[in-house]
Design goal:
Blueprint lengths: L1 E4 L9 E4 L3 E6 L4 E6 L15 E4 L2 E6 L10 E6 L1
Antiparallel strand pairs: 1-2, 3-6, 4-7, 5-6
Length: 81
């Protein structure tokens, strides 16, 4: 996925940045997780759907940057034990 952004005061034209997808696995005792992309002020955006954040057999799997609308450099993971 590619994101165009303008850096005021630094350049005249948009900058092209590549946002790579990532799959993260974590061992956990949680039964469920919710993963929230955060906006620039740290507020939660809509949670990733179950296809992108799940727990199975003690392993949480999180797939970030898969959807352009939910791309963010910051995420919050909430676990329900």
């Amino acid at each position: 996925m590619r994101v165009n952004a303008v850096a005021p005061g630094f350049v005249e034209t948009p900058i092209l940045a590549t946002v790579p997808e990532a799959r993260i696995t974590l061992r956990t005792q949680a039964r469920r997780i919710a993963v929230y992309p955060l906006d620039g002020s740290g507020k939660r955006m809509a949670a990733l759907d179950a296809g992108h954040a799940s727990v199975s057999n003690g392993v949480a799997t999180i797939h970030i940057q898969a959807e352009a609308a939910q791309a963010s450099p910051w995420y919050e993971v909430a676990a329900d034990e």
